[in-house]
Write a structure and sequence with these properties.
With 338 residues, the protein is of the alpha+beta class. The chain has 10 helices and 20 strands. The strands form 7 sheets. Strands 5-6-11-9-10 form a 5-stranded antiparallel β-sheet. A 3-stranded parallel β-sheet has the order 1-4-2, covered by helices on one side. A 3-stranded antiparallel β-sheet has the order 14-19-18, covered by helices on one side.
């Protein structure tokens, strides 16, 4: 297989050693064999958060295509367990179609269910950490199945224990604690504005989904094979989380949000104010999206090296102008910004 055919950036070299796992047993067996042989392993879901080197990948790629959804109601809660290979947005849509709400603010995010706890995926004021009840995993160290609690997952902003120890766990399924209230509270200003509401108001879950999909489409964050402005891995950088003193040194108009004892800044604002506009490019092959400063896009024939060069230039501009070092949100395989 080629990563260029299996990632949303449509970039990456060949991976001759490849297994398509459609059951938990197949997925575990493939990883066990690779671990026994000391072979590097990459678990591939939807390929929506990856930038892979143009070089050949010397290891095993396992596509985790395990499917299945189970629902259990306990009191007012609805526990939805989805296998790692379930397409994320299909799960969101299916829950809403069944009258189950909670996931709607995360509509339109590409990729699979198994990736969501790894990245602690979030959007429009919601992180999956706030909705996850348990994560079913294969423990590669203990050679055992385990159900991890949210505390054991060590969730923080766009981070988890799975990112800290990428060779320790294989996510097999995720259980979400949801509800059938039909309405959800709005906690994000842009979403509230799109709905004509105030932060703190509630709206029908289906209306929230429609508004989120519209916002994502406007930003070029809905995948479209015919639109190269969407050939990206979503937000390339995370929003920086800095001490309050560092945030206070920035211009007053810089958007900032409380994040525990720290302050979260808008990476998109920092990028644009550093002089990197939408559509910015170094060579025409890789470019900042014309609709969102955080998305780096493949204009059709970009290489991983092209994207890395662009990302380095953006990071250098922000560091020079604001003293803030941006961190990639995209997983880099066989390449680095350093």
């Amino acid at each position: 297989m080629h990563f260029a055919d299996s990632t949303t950036l449509r970039i990456g070299g060949e991976a001759p050693s490849f297994v398509h796992a459609t059951t938990e047993a197949e997925l575990i067996a493939a990883v066990q064999q690779a671990d026994h042989q000391g072979e590097p392993t990459l678990i591939l879901g939807g390929g929506s958060n990856l930038l892979v080197s143009d070089a050949r990948f010397d290891g095993l790629v396992v596509r985790a295509d395990v499917r299945g959804v189970a629902i259990q109601e306990v009191g007012d809660l609805v526990f939805v367990t989805a296998a790692c290979g379930e397409p994320w947005d299909d799960l969101v849509a299916a829950c809403l179609a069944s009258g189950i709400n909670g996931l709607e603010a995360l509509s339109g995010i590409p990729g699979t269910v198994g990736a969501t706890p790894i990245q602690n995926v979030g959007a429009y004021g919601i992180d999956v950490a706030s909705l996850i009840a348990t994560v079913r995993v294969w423990d590669r160290h203990q050679q055992a199945l385990r159900d991890l609690s949210p505390q054991e997952c060590a969730f923080t902003y766009r981070h988890s224990a799975f990112k800290d120890e990428p060779d320790h766990w294989i996510v097999l399924a995720v259980t979400f604690a949801l509800a059938r209230t039909g309405r959800s509270r709005i906690s994000y200003p842009q979403l509230a504005q799109a709905l004509g509401l105030e932060v703190g108001d509630t709206a029908l879950a289906v209306e929230i989904r429609e508004a989120v999909l519209h916002l994502r489409e406007q930003k070029g964050m809905l995948l479209d094979d015919d639109d190269r402005d969407t050939w990206s891995a979503g937000s390339f950088f995370t929003n920086p989380v800095v001490p309050a003193a560092a945030a206070s040194a920035l211009p007053a108009e810089c958007p900032r949000y409380p994040e525990g004892a720290h302050v979260k800044l808008s990476a998109a604002w920092l990028i644009e104010q550093a002089g990197v506009g939408r559509g910015y490019t170094l060579n025409g092959r890789a470019a900042v999206s014309s609709r969102h400063a955080l998305a780096l896009t493949n204009r059709g024939d970009a290489s991983a090296a092209d994207v890395i060069e662009l990302a380095r230039a953006i990071r250098a501009r922000v560091l020079e102008n604001f003293g803030i070092l941006l961190t990639p949100e995209v997983r880099l395989v066989g390449c680095s910004l350093d």
